[in-house]
Amino acid sequence: MPSLLPGTKELDNMSKEERPPQAQRKDLKWRFHCKFAKPPMADKLKPSETLLWSQSLETLLKSKNGMATFQAFLKSEFSDENIEFWLICEDFKKIRCTSRMSSRAKKIFERYIEAEAPKEINIDHKTREIIKQNVQAPNKCCFDEAQRIVYGLMEKDSYPRFLRSEVYRALLESVSDMIKG
């Protein structure tokens, strides 16, 4: 019986927008798998480091390779706004100049906090309104509550999905092979 779905050759000739959603996901998964699960990535990792990532989100985020892998995983799932926001808040806290802080706070608010923002994070209305007021006279702590909420969401949702993902399992398998080597 002929398939109603386009074959591999047809998919290769289609633009990203023309591809069926399932084909886009498979293609993206394959590219992601090739980029992060192949031996060159594993060669850069210490087996103990990769194993430590499963201890906690905090441990994962402290690792440069862990952070990069987690970000790439979230990006592949089109859910990278939380980690982006969290990282931008960490950088925001390091700003010393008040005029720069004010400018950056407004940009963060417009990109992540306000309703219908391009990378809107999932926070409650009350927190959104408090931050709206905080941005008028920003300080290092003006995004703390939203950052705490986002961290909690990542810890309860994104992080467990990452640990169950094919990407993380493939990395564990490749570093395990290195140990057996």
Our count of helices gives 11
Mean of residue pLDDT values: 82
- The number of E-state strands comes to 0
Global morphology = elongated
Which band does the percent of strand residues land in? under 5%
Low-pLDDT windows of residues: 1-26
Q: In angstroms, what is the radius of gyration?
A: 20 Å
Q: Biggest β-sheet, characterized?
A: none
SSE ordering: HHHHHHHHHHH
Structural class: mainly alpha
User: Ends: how far apart?
Assistant: 46 Å
**Proportion in helices:** over 70%
Describe the structure.
This protein is mostly helical. About 70% of the residues lie in helices and about 0% in strands. The protein has helices at about 10-15, 20-35, 40-45, 45-50, 55-60, 65-75, 80-90, 100-115, 125-135, 145-165, 165-180. Residues about 1-25 have low confidence and may be disordered.
